[in-house]
Amino acid sequence: MKSSEPRRRKLTNSSPGDDAGNKAAPDAAGTEQPGGFAELAQEMAAKSSLVRKENGHIDLLAAAGGIRGIAESVLPGLVFLVVFTMTRDLAVSLVGSVAVAAVFLVARLAQHTPLTQALAGIAGVALSAFLAMKTGKAENFYAVGFYTNAAYIVAMVVSIAVRWPVLGLLFGYARNEGVRWRHKTERLRAYRAATWILVGVMAARLAVQLPLYFAGNVDALGAMRLIMGVPLYAFGLWVAWLVSRPVKDS
């Protein structure tokens, strides 16, 4: 955890290739970027977990939230699936899932680490548990994820349509391009393609999981949710990074 690890460059509110501060940054032709969108991009970059290694590749582990972030995302659902598969007891399965999410939250509180991910996680698990318990259908534990995926799809498609693709905002700052890529046709095209890749990931989840949901196949649905969760997201992000890489980016 040490000096032998490769150094990594994290996103910051201003990158060496950007004009720092809250003012709109001029592009290569001297045209100013809309300040509001530039500031939004900076804010997104600052909050992003994207990390670029010195060799130019994206750190997929960091992008997925690190070991703890992955555990917080995966374990509540895994516990629910395992317990339900073994016992077929919905109440016990839901209690186990919520308890795991609560443990992560308490651990963050005790260690005084940022609570955002843990709070979002326990809120999502609690809502999922409520829906499943209220309806008495175990498959409804996964219903919230469908709405979340659909919302991401809509947001990313809109960002592409208005020429501010989400991955351009995130990757642009990781590569010290700021938002100047918007005035370079080939870079805008590349970031739109990259964002479409993540749209495809979200759409694939719905295409595979919704039929299982409507069929009430909880075991298969839970397994697909795990397989198509962090692993598929990380793979899609890696492909999007490669697709949008500038020729000079090593």
Explained architecture:
By secondary structure, the protein is mostly helical. The chain has two domains: 35-52 and 140-250, no CATH class; 65-136. Helices cover 66% and strands 2% of the residues. It contains ten helices and two strands. It has helices spanning 35-47, 60-63, 66-87, 90-111, 116-135, 143-161, 166-174, 185-215, 218-227, 230-243; strands at residues 8-10, 51-53. The protein has a two-stranded antiparallel ribbon with strand order 1-2. The protein is globular, with a radius of gyration of 20 Å. Residues 1-34 have low confidence and may be disordered.
Count of alpha/pi helices: 10
Beginning-to-end CA distance, first to last residue: 25 Å
Tell me what portion of residues adopts beta-strand conformation.
under 5%
What's the pLDDT, averaged over the residues?
A: 81
Described by strand count, sense and barrel closure, the largest sheet is: 2 strands, antiparallel
Unreliable parts: 1-34
Q: What is the overall shape?
A: globular
Strands ordered across the widest β-sheet: 1-2
- What is the rounded Rg? 20 Å
Helix content: 55-70%
The helix-and-strand class reads mainly alpha
In sequence order, what are the helices and strands, one letter per element?
Answer: EHEHHHHHHHHH
Tell me the number of strands.
2
Number of domains: 2
